[in-house]
Amino acid sequence: MSSTTPKTFHKDGYLIIPNALPPTTVQALLSEAHMMLENFSLADHPMTKFSTGEKSAHVGDDYFLTSGDKIRFFFEEDAFSSTGELIKPKSRAINKIGHYLHSLSPPFASLLDPALNPDLLGAGSTGGSVEAGRKESHPAAVARALGFRDPRVLQSMVICKQPEIGGAVPPHQDSTFLYTDPPSAVGFWYALEDATIENGCLSFLAGSHRWAPVKSRFVRDQNGSGTTFFDNEGARFPSKEGYGESLKDGDEEGEYKMGEVKAGSLVLIHGNLLHKSEKNLSQKGRIIYTFHVIEGEGKVYDKRNWLQPPSEGFTKLYRG
């Protein structure tokens, strides 16, 4: 990242970094995603769907709640008929794969540890400036540039916007789902295929992270019945200057900026930023890889969050 890009991120709440991954790495990650989509078994699968619609319909079964240290597959709602029959090939029916790819899948784990993939940085580059740019775009370098002291990696996912049935994702804030007190989440979103307006690219309400509070929390239902949303009683903004209720409120129905990106791009997304994507009605799908980083130093990760750390704790990106 250049010296100006953290300023752009803090101003807009998101940042697009083109060519963050070389083509060889993009292809390796895409091949791994396709392999998983082709080879997972339906024999004992509960056919769990991942809903991004109304809050009451959000996924919350045991298959989902115990996926924090596993690799599991969640279906698109529209991959099924009205009578519940799967009507798409399984590889074209999955909404997302999650949530521990950054540890259990060697190709995806290599993004966090260059020793696992020496070709990650600079592979296929034709000049020093490209190679240097990619080194600056490594997750550890990005986290340092953003001011993280003890970044912890969690909730890694392959997300598929399947042709014709890729569901719309309504405006949301990632800190609703991965809450720390005060909020600290940042999403690292890698395009493995071109994301366009036609196939449901992201769009962002620029600057909303500074005035849009984290009003609600997505948590495990204390009654043991899955997941639920409740009003956030903790901090609603990062504990930094330039955030907070005292700022002039923006318009949550304001104009969203489209985020079309080429394969290999990295999109950084502030945990308070309102962002969304539209349904994919085209014949062209798009596959991305994303994980989130939270601050482990001086922040409290709530025990009520739907995602809880594995026995060894969330993955450290670095310390200090």
Description:
This protein has 320 residues and is of the alpha+beta class. The protein has a single domain (5-316), classed as Jelly Rolls (Sandwich). The chain is built from 7 helices and 16 strands. The strands form 4 sheets. Strands 1, 2, 3, 4, 7, 12, 14 and 16 form an 8-stranded antiparallel sheet that branches. A hairpin with a 6-residue loop joins strand 9 and strand 10 (227-231). It is globular and about 50 Å long. 42% of the residues are buried. Mean pLDDT is 90; it is low at 121-130.
Q: Sheet with the most strands?
A: 8 strands, antiparallel
* Strand-residue proportion: 15-25%
CATH-defined superfamily: q2cbj1_9rhob like domain
The CATH topology corresponds to Jelly Rolls
Radius of gyration: 19 Å
What CATH architecture would you give? Sandwich
Q: How large is the count of helical segments?
A: 7
Distance between the termini: 19 Å
- What's the shape? globular
Uncertain stretches of 5 or more adjacent residues = 121-130
Per DSSP E runs of 2 or more residues, the count of β-strands stands at 16
The structure class reads: alpha+beta
Tell me, rounded to a whole number, the average pLDDT.
90
CATH class, named Mainly Beta
